[in-house]
Amino acid sequence: MNKVRLIGVLILLIGIACHYFLDKEFRGFWIGAIMGFGIALIITGKIKKVW
């Protein structure tokens, strides 16, 4: 498992923990965006450079 996928797993776990442990007022778009970003890193497994 490369570093980017490992970071993706960590971000996904943080997002899931925030989803279950924070109040309902704080859950919403940002928690979903964090979890989606973690899933995207797991699936792609690499970050492409634009430049």
Report on this model:
The protein has 51 residues and is mainly α. It contains 2 helices and no strands. The protein has helices at residues 3-21, 29-44. The chain is elongated. The protein starts with a helix and ends in a 7-residue tail after the last helix. The model has no long low-confidence stretch (mean pLDDT 82).
Fold topology:
Elements: H1 3-21, H2 29-44
Helix pairs in contact: 1-2
Q: What attributes characterize this protein structure?
A:
69% helix, mainly alpha, single chain, 51 residues
First-residue to last-residue Cα separation: 26 Å
Give the mean pLDDT: 82
Low-confidence stretches: none
Strand count, sense and closure of the main sheet? Answer: none
Number of strands: 0
> What structural category arises from helix and sheet content?
mainly alpha
Counted by DSSP, the helix tally is 2
Q: Please provide the ordered H/E string of secondary-structure elements.
A: HH
The amount of beta strand, in percent, is: under 5%
Query: Can you give the helix content as a percent range?
Result: 55-70%
Radius of gyration: 12 Å
